[in-house]
Request: fold
Amino acid sequence: MKKLTDDTVALLNSILLGKDRQVRLALCTLLARGHLLIEDIPGMGKTTLSHALARALGLSYQRIQFTNDLLPADVLGFSIYDKQAGSLVFHPGPIFAQVVLADEINRASPRTQSALLEAMEERQVSIEGETRPLPRPFFVIATQNPLEQGGTYPLPESQLDRFLMRLRLGYPDPQAERALLEGEDRRSLTDKVQPRLSEADLATLQAAVDRVTTSPALLDYVQRLLEESRRMPGLVYGLSPRAGLGLVRAARAWALMDGRHHVLPDDIQAVFPAVAEHRLEQGESGKSADRVRQLLSKVSVIA
Reply:
């Protein structure tokens, strides 16, 4: 199984240069059956990563450009009267894909943002009184621009909490940037990507994540992190039970990618910043990274 994930990571690293950790965390999110939020300025490779990931896994892919005039029906779908059938016919929206890129999600109104809530949590959508299941696997990758940029709406906490991880890609190092400048266009390279994992392989890996063991002592460590976050000064609330469940799932996926069937404290610490930072920001941009470092330094692995 480690070879499967290593091969996939290597392929993605050939497209998105110099971002091995972010690539691993993105794949980890998918294996843990979570959703991913990527926050960065335009032009950093957010769309390239999502498209390359879908291509590497051979999954159906749809990109939705979120704008301030986008409506929920543009995301979910709508019904039109069919004269020949004599009835309404449902036309599914782009949400009915296995990998959905919600590009610049925070440029849409809160009403349209909320159209994703049920889909992300329940893997289904309710439209016109009917519940429609979404494809499996179902993976949302949302990108957002920094809130300091004009024309953005902050994501509500209920929306943020449905993303298992948040990543920032950042500028490439000089060596990777030179390779980008000298190399082939990333979009052309992405279009040439051949699947490394089949749907069956992905399902096997996701099922294997559930079998990775976590000791009672490790769960005690996770609980201490959650409890300490709820006592931090300056926060209205700490990490939710959903965040705790996501942290354990992500750590299991990280351990599996490392070739192990048991979780170590290092696995918790490796994924904790990506799982916790967006949940601890609470309107104070830039402080969440310090809060995460404080939690990891203050909470002992051993009680």
Observations:
- The two ends are 33 Å apart (CA to CA).
- The chain has a mean pLDDT of 87.
- The chain has two domains: 2-207, 212-298.
